[in-house]
Design a protein that fits this description.
One of its GO terms (molecular function) is aldehyde dehydrogenase (NAD+) activity. Keywords: NAD, Oxidoreductase. Residues 3-424 form the Aldehyde dehydrogenase domain. The chain is an alpha/beta fold. The protein has two domains: 2-209 and 403-426, Aldehyde Dehydrogenase, Chain A, domain 1 (3-Layer(aba) Sandwich); 214-393, Aldehyde Dehydrogenase, Chain A, domain 2, CATH 3.40.309. The protein is built from 15 helices and 18 strands. The chain has helices spanning 2-14, 21-37, 39-50, 54-80, 117-128, 142-155, 168-176, 188-200, 223-235, 255-270, 286-295, 346-354, 369-378, 413-418, 444-453; strands at 83-85, 94-102, 105-109, 132-136, 161-163, 181-185, 205-208, 214-217, 247-251, 300-303, 307-308, 313-314, 317-320, 337-343, 361-365, 383-386, 407-408, 421-429. The strands form four sheets. The protein has a seven-stranded mixed sheet with strand order 10-13-14-9-8-15-16, sandwiched between helices. A six-stranded mixed sheet has the order 5-4-3-6-7-17, sandwiched between helices. Strand 3 (105-109), helix 5 (117-128) and strand 4 (132-136) form a beta-alpha-beta unit. It is globular. The termini are far apart. The structure holds nicotinamide-adenine-dinucleotide.
Length: 454
């Protein structure tokens, strides 16, 4: 069954039907139509999977995807046409282009935390580049997966664009097939499984992984803004965001004040009892709930700390007096728990970050721009927002992806189409002239002239 789906997609790609821009545009428009026609059902599915309210369902999944797909449609012609580049003197007369070509059949494997955008935005990039696509939503966000499983066959060209629902067995079967590109979003352990399987066929991979994204707060920071932007980014989707601030490294002089500002923002956002707020999400599964609850023993609770197993609720929490050896600092948290560690200097914060795997995101808050510049230039991370959180990945003009342990490759905007096309270098030479200079037999004079060019 799975091999048949892939074979059908391959036959569709080889038939050439996915190449015309009109076909690509029709599929992308249909993707938008699917999201708009069924926005309420998607919103209800996100509520069921993650306890997410309708506003954040729209802002971070449904509407977010539509905005990106609209941008791709608007730029489709420009992003897929040949790109002229310079031609060196030795190849003159001639012209040089990079000609985009689709890769073939693409596999997109998505996680559960933003289960619409993390599946459909890469799929849109793959379609825009002229590929056939097989997509695999996460089984953890089961309601969203079931809805996509029902709708995708209704809205797309079924020969070229297919959905396979399922968990590890189905993904394992998919990974045994030959694809021309695999785009995986999720954790690094499975990222390694994906890359190993891809190696069998020398299939290129994009790995969008996670990690512990640090947030450095300098003593010069605007603490009211820092507190609000950190609280928003940490507690949206109950912390189940790959680019959420994982932990804070606060200058010791301002750490207490920063906790006060975060507390104020939590109250402003979710009221005195966040469990009753319609805007605060729930943990995706009992397994993740238990994993997170165990982390609450690290340090001392300064904000939140309450849990409710039945509802898979964990309050927006800040832990202070945390040390680097505490459980909460040993793995990506991926929940609404924010440990705060103090540092005496920016250099200490930089050393802390550099002693650990490269994170997906890094945030620095300082009014002293020298501090911001120093942190940006002396650390390595997938991306950075200065004096903010998450926003570097929301626009289509900055490619989004990790580095080292946080992944490889990038997407969003033009980068999201380029990921799925081969920019084939093509040099066209003229036959009007054919200087004998480069051909043997070499003479001293010929060599002297050639050395001026090479
Ligand atoms: P998940 O459990 O939904 O897994 C992701 C996908 O991998 C699913 O489709 C699942 O079916 C598949 N899978 C799971 N186990 C597998 C196996 N053994 N073999 C083959 N396939 C398998 O999601 P997750 O990994 O829990 O997602 C959370 C992680 O993803 C976090 O680390 C987070 O930081 C990261 N993430 C990264 C980004 C990004 O854009 N870089 C975005 C979201 C999440």
């Amino acid at each position: 069954m799975i091999s048949q789906v892939v074979a059908t997609a391959r036959a569709a790609f080889e038939s050439g039907k996915t190449r015309p821009l009109a076909w690509r545009k029709a599929q992308l428009s249909s993707m938008i139509k699917m999201l708009r026609d069924n926005a309420d059902e998607f919103s209800a599915a996100l509520k069921q999977d993650l306890g997410r309210g309708p506003e954040e369902a729209w802002l971070y999944d449904i509407g977010f995807s539509i905005t990106e797909i609209e941008l791709i449609i608007k730029n489709l012609k420009k992003w897929t046409e040949p790109r002229k580049v310079s031609t060196p003197l030795v190849s003159m007369p001639g012209s040089s282009h990079r000609i985009p070509q689709p890769l073939g059949v693409v596999l997109v494997i998505a996680p559960w935390n933003y289960p619409i955008q993390l599946l459909l935005i890469p799929v849109a990039g793959a379609i825009a580049a002229g590929n056939a696509v097989v997509m695999k939503p996460s089984e953890v966000s089961s309601a969203t997966s079931a809805l996509l499983g029902k709708l995708v066959p209704q809205y797309f060209d079924n020969e070229a664009i297919a959905i396979v629902e399922g968990a590890v067995p189905e993904t394992t079967q998919l990974l045994a097939e030959k694809f021309d590109h695999i785009f995986y979003t999720g954790n690094g352990t499975v990222g390694r499984v994906v890359m190993r399987a891809a190696a069998e066929n020398l299939t290129p991979v994009t790995l969008e992984l996670g990690g512990k994204s640090p947030t450095i707060v300098d003593k010069s920071a605007n603490l009211a803004i820092a507190g609000r932007r950190i609280a928003w980014a940490k507690y949206v989707n109950a912390g189940q965001t790959c680019v959420a601030p994982d932990y804070v490294l606060a200058h010791a002089d301002i750490a207490d004040k920063l906790v006060d500002e975060i507390r104020k923002s939590v109250n402003d956002f979710y009221g005195v009892d966040p469990q009753n707020s319609g805007d605060f999400a729930r943990i995706s599964s009992p397994r993740h709930f238990s994993r997170l609850k165990a982390m609450l023993t690290s340090g001392k609770v300064a904000i939140g700390g309450q849990t409710d197993e039945q509802q898979r609720y964990i309050a927006p929490t800040v832990l202070v007096d945390v040390t680097a050896s505490d459980p909460v600092m040993q793995e990506e948290i991926f929940g609404p728990i924010l440990p705060m560690l103090t540092v005496e200097s920016i250099d200490e914060a930089i050393s802390f970050v550099n002693a650990r795997p490269h994170p997906l995101a890094l945030y620095v808050f300082a009014e002293d721009q020298k501090v911001n510049d120093k942190v940006v230039s002396s650390t390595t991370s997938g991306g950075v927002t200065v004096n903010g959180t998450i926003f570097h990945m929301t626009g289509p003009f900055l490619p989004f992806g990790g580095v080292g342990e946080s992944g490889m490759g990038a997407y969003h905007g033009r980068a999201g189409v380029d990921t799925f096309q081969h920019l084939k270098p093509v040099l066209k030479r003229s036959t009007r002239v054919d200087a004998p200079l480069a051909y043997p037999p070499y003479t001293k004079r010929k060599f002297a002239i050639l050395k001026k060019f090479i």
